[in-house]
Design brief:
The structure is a single chain. This protein has helices at residues 6-28, 52-63, 75-89, 104-117, 144-166, 198-219, 251-258, 265-268, 270-277, 304-318, and strands at residues 43-47, 67-72, 94-98, 123-126, 170-175, 225-231, 285-290, 293-295. By secondary structure, it is of the alpha/beta class. The chain has a single domain (35-315), classed as Rossmann fold. This is Retinol dehydrogenase 13. InterPro entries: NAD(P)-bd_dom_sf, SDR_fam. It holds the Pfam family adh_short. GO terms for molecular function: oxidoreductase activity.
Length: 331
């Protein structure tokens, strides 16, 4: 009777399982956005563009012929990423520009420099984010996640609105996620200075992203500027680097368990391409897309009065209409 060789059997089984997991992962990542859609002649700004989903979005836009400005805090990493993308895509019109969303002064400096260099802006992608950071505040006194994920992007977008309108048809893409469904806007303590909980603070900012997108879309009706909020899904990026799990030995157990259902960054970036380039979204007014499909956000995200309240507070806290030289702190 033939007896299978145990080592060969084990190796074959492991290889077959690994292959099946990889196939499942590819299928779970979803279909890519239409590769035939080009972006020649378009100018794109992407925040958080040096790593993860932002980096892959830059690669995709570059491959399709766009001129891309990478708005990043870490310029060393940004330049390394830029060189890599230029070499891989053959598109030399990729630029790094400093933009620290945790500093409103840095945001204003980025906008001033961009406007001095570029006459138009076709696509703005608000992608950068931090997640579950330790308790802290930005240079302007905002809770870190609120400052980076919402306030910085709120100011950036509003300061670029005149250019976006002049460049119409143009688009704003706001990256959020399903965590918005667990979020609350803490009206009495938006900065969460009295009782800080990292996950609650993160979920608040993701809800704020959707409220901002919907209110911005309402304000830009008939302007030629479309606004979409997108959820890239559960993605394999370094966004979770501040979570306790990522700093403990448990990551070696948890990561392999979730790896098969985590999207690779390039697969996750397809929702950005879809919102930025699909002709069917040309009139989007704050609509929410998951896996390139129109979805319904939480009831709180559809609260018009809450969106208005957050907009007014954000205007005040970022001192949107003040002279750039003036300082800012939450009141």
């Amino acid at each position: 009777m033939w007896i299978p060789n145990l080592p060969i059997t084990v190796i074959t089984g492991v290889a077959a399982t690994a292959g099946a997991l990889c196939l499942f992962k590819d299928m779970h990542g979803g279909s890519p956005f239409d590769r035939n859609v080009k972006a020649e002649g378009k100018t794109v700004v992407i925040t958080g563009a040096n790593t993860g989903i932002g980096k892959e979005a830059v690669w995709e836009f570059a491959k399709r012929g766009a001129k891309v400005f990478m708005a990043c805090r870490d310029m060393t990493s940004c330049e390394e990423t830029r060189r890599e993308i230029v070499l891989e895509t053959g598109n030399k019109y990729i630029y790094c520009r400093p933009c620290n969303l945790a500093s409103l002064a840095s945001v204003r400096e980025f906008v001033n420099r961009f406007k001095s260099e570029e006459p138009k802006l076709d696509i703005l992608v608000n992608n950068a984010a931090v997640m579950e950071t330790p308790k802290g505040v930005t240079k302007d006194g905002f809770e870190t996640q609120l400052g980076v994920n919402h306030m910085g992007h709120f100011l950036l977008t509003n300061l670029l609105l005149d250019t976006l309108k002049a460049s119409a048809p143009s688009r704003v893409v706001v990256v959020t996620c399903d965590a918005h469904r667990r979020g609350d806007i803490h009206k009495e303590d938006l900065n969460m200075s009295q009782q800080y909980e990292p996950n609650a603070a993160y979920c608040q900012t993701k809800l704020a992203n959707l409220l901002f997108a919907r209110e911005l879309g309402r304000r830009l009706l008939e302007s030629g500027v479309s606004v979409s909020a997108v959820d890239p899904g559960f993605s394999d990026t370094n966004l979770t680097r501040h979570m306790p799990m990522s700093k403990s030995m448990t990551r070696f157990i948890i990561y392999p368990v979730f790896w098969p259902v985590m999207k690779m960054p390039r697969a996750a970036a397809q929702v950005i391409l879809h919102a930025a380039l699909d002709d069917q979204l040309a009139n989007s007014a704050g609509d929410y897309y998951v896996d390139m499909k129109l979805a319904t956000p939480s009831e709180k995200a559809q609260d018009y009065e809450l969106a208005m309240w957050l907009w007014k507070v954000s205007e005040k806290w970022t001192r949107l209409y003040d002279a750039p030289a003036q300082t800012n702190a939450p009141q």
